[in-house]
Design a protein that fits this description.
Length: 713
């Protein structure tokens, strides 16, 4: 079908967040009359020729939507009026197929799936009233209708790209790549690759020393040889759209083919080199490269520290997105970045560099001076691009080993020497923000280190804090004689409610530690806490020493460590109560580790319940009760929430009600500003046990917890 392609049309081109300005420039070069930058996309005004050219040539866009109507859409009536204002017969055959993509909500439509079905019905009713038939739904439709609702306004358009514009056709849809093609193209633009292409340099090189899927190299070659991404896709434009101009599209395709032929005439000017340490990655990269019919490239397979010298082009760009494992930290990354920085600095002075990585990657370990940094979003991961106009390393590399921190740890270890030598435990604290500049807590669990970073004050420069953290992580293995791969880092922030118990990751780094003859399972990576509160070591041992022949209750039992100590100490009965099924299973594992799993007389019970409600209804008596509640928690009894400062008196009263006449309640909590209600001391015999319950390795922090032994008068 022929159409008047000189008529100005409204378009919206979607793209990854933070590259909108680059897309706006690209659309302008494609012939847009005007552009307006939005969130994750650009609005453009231009004729059909512009729209087709942009879909064919855009290296940055994800989707192209032709806007048909914009107006009010705060309810179904307003949205229906907008739908009815469009003559759908101009876009779709009555017996054709369609699909509706619906975004946003309004007063009447509270579900996007319902919204898509409702819009389809409204369009179908228009066809049925005029033709007696209506289009059907398909996953491979003739037309994709897009509806967006936002703050009472609505826009309706049709998506004219047959497939996502980020796809080039050289990679199978099921193949995983660390970066999408259009994002890789945006990174290359920011890195200055188009400027090198346009320069008068006789030869130009693009090198990726950790190429993985070779996305940077392929996108760079497509730019260098003036190859339109749309030429590589089997289908780019929605050819079954009734407004499709076949002749115009064919004209633009032929123009793109001519430009490709002209571009490939300059193959001798460019050198492309991909390297990776993994054989499979190099093989896959070469296969994708060949599928695009690009000229021959150089491929090598080796580690960074074995990289050979490049064929010396006049100018070049080294671009790299380091492959980093999820469990990596600054200690394990240092050799990688050191080798990368050293190799990049060995290149000619006419070369420039670019590193694309997650935002918290320790780029300073390269010892290179970066020129600029740019923010990107790779899927949902925040990333940064660092560009290097000159590949020169610092004459005085940053000193990554802190003598101050190492000396303080040595001093702490001297203080703990006898404690460690006694061998009562292989899990203890070795450092806790002793030096304000190094705001971390370091706990040793057997031959592992668990490092918790305290959130720095707002007055501290973010980059300075990050560099100090990296310096600390590099110092700790040397100072404590630990394998750098056995350092786990977690950021420590104030947690409320159940967040402190929620899973943080999936690494499942578990090990076994011992304490006063008792063994515990520890998980260093998956939760905010490890499964063992080290500061409660003395009170757990107290329970072990006093539990013989006693009936013991552990409330908010967590992983049951106090329960195990009581059982090992000879308790006749131990009941452990917690809301979390996960932690009760963990508690059972801890019992099994100590050969306590076989229990024909049900001496050891694990009760999943809301502790406050269970305690209120409890009709049994206990000789020893360990009560260590969270600072905050949800509860149906306590005004919908539990606050340890506000509600501890009622909680203690409930616990004392089920305590035997000669029994002891151990009450503890870690709220640093906690004050015991005076009413508690009036009603019961209270022994302040804070000093006795504080272990040697926590003496610097006497407010780590409060602890009281409470008995009936």
């Amino acid at each position: 079908m022929q159409s008047d392609n000189v008529t100005s049309l409204q378009w919206f081109f979607a793209c990854p967040q933070f590259i909108e300005p680059l897309l706006a420039d690209e659309l302008t070069h494609c012939g847009a009359e005007s552009v307006k930058i939005g969130h994750a996309g650009v609005q453009a005004l231009g004729d059909l020729r512009f729209g087709y050219r942009a879909m064919l040539w855009s290296r940055l866009a994800s989707r192209a939507t032709l806007q048909l109507a914009q107006g009010f859409g705060k309810d179904q009536a307003e949205l229906q009026a907008l739908i009815d204002s469009i003559d759908w017969q101009q876009h779709l055959r009555p017996e054709g197929t369609l699909k509706v993509r619906f975004f946003g909500l309004n007063d009447d439509i509270r579900n996007t799936q319902f919204g898509a079905q409702w819009v389809k019905d409204q369009i179908g009713d228009q066809f049925r009233s005029q033709h007696g038939v209506r289009p059907s739904v398909s996953n491979t439709p003739d037309l994709v209708v897009v509806v967006n609702l936002h703050k009472g306004n609505a826009s309706i358009g049709i998506e004219l790209n047959q497939h996502s514009l980020h796809q080039r056709g050289y990679r199978d849809l099921g193949t995983h790549a660390p970066i999408r093609e259009n994002l890789a193209a945006a990174v290359l633009v920011r890195a200055g690759w188009p400027e090198l292409i346009a320069s008068d340099a006789e030869t130009v090189a693009l090198i990726d020393p950790q190429c993985a899927a070779a996305t940077f190299l392929i996108e760079g070659a497509l730019m260098a040889f003036d190859i339109a991404p749309g030429l590589l896709r089997e289908h780019t434009v929605a050819e079954r759209w009734l407004g499709h101009d076949v002749d115009l599209w064919q004209e633009l395709l032929e123009e793109a083919q001519q430009r490709r032929t002209s571009g490939l005439a300059h193959t001798e000017r460019f050198e492309f080199w991909g390297n990776d340490s993994h054989t499979a990655a190099v093989m896959a990269a070469r296969a994708d490269w060949r599928s695009t019919d690009l000229p021959a490239a150089r491929w090598t397979q080796c580690d960074l520290n074995a990289m050979p010298a490049p064929t010396l082009a006049a100018v070049g760009l080294v671009i790299n997105s380091p492959t980093i494992e999820a469990s990596a930290n600054v200690v394990t990354l240092r050799p990688l970045f050191d080798a990368l920085g050293t190799w990049m600095a060995s290149l000619p002075s006419t070369y420039r560099g670019a590193l694309f990585a997650e935002a918290d990657v320790p780029i300073a370990l390269t010892n290179l001076f970066y020129s600029k940094e740019y923010r990107f979003l790779n899927s949902e991961t925040e990333c940064k691009l660092y560009t290097f106009d000159k590949l020169a390393q610092k004459e005085r590399p940053t000193e990554w080993i802190s003598d101050d921190l190492a000396n303080r740890i040595t001093k702490n270890l001297r203080k703990l020497k006898n404690f460690i030598k006694q061998g009562h435990t292989d899990a203890y604290r070795v450092y806790d923000m002793d030096i304000p500049e190094y705001a971390i807590a370091v706990d040793r669990y057997a031959d592992w280190l668990h490092v918790q970073e305290y959130a720095p004050p707002k007055s501290i420069d973010e980059k300075a804090a990050e560099q100090r953290l990296q310096q600390a992580l590099l110092t700790l293995p040397a100072a404590l004689g630990v394998d750098p791969k056995k350092v786990v880092l977690k950021q420590r922030r104030q947690q409320k409610g159940k967040n402190q118990y929620e899973k943080q990751g999936r690494a499942e780094q578990a090990l076994i530690v011992s304490e006063h003859g008792v063994r515990f399972k520890i998980n260093l990576s998956d939760y905010l806490d490890t499964g063992l509160f080290l500061d409660h070591r003395p009170i757990r041992y107290w329970l072990q020493q006093h539990a013989k022949g006693q009936k013991v209750l552990n409330l908010f039992c967590y992983t049951g460590t106090a329960s195990v100590h009581a059982a090992v100490g000879g308790a006749n009965r131990v009941d452990s109560v917690d809301m979390s099924a996960t932690y009760l299973e963990w508690a059972k594992e801890n019992f099994s580790l100590n050969d306590l799993q076989h229990d024909p007389y049900r001496r050891y019970r694990f009760i999943q319940a809301n502790v406050l409600e269970w305690l209120y209804d409890c009709d049994e008596y206990y000789d020893l009760i360990f009560l260590d509640p969270p600072t905050f928690s949800n509860s149906k009894r306590m005004q919908d929430t539990f606050d340890v400062q506000r509600d501890h008196l009622a909680l203690i009263d409930d616990a004392m009600r089920v305590l035997s006449a000669d029994g002891t309640l151990i009450f503890s909590n870690n709220f640093r500003k906690f004050k015991l209600d005076a009413e508690v001391e009036e009603r019961y015999i209270v022994q302040d046990y804070r000093k006795q319950s504080l272990p040697l390795d926590f003496e610097r922090d006497p407010k780590i917890h409060g602890c009281w032994l409470i008995r009936k008068k």
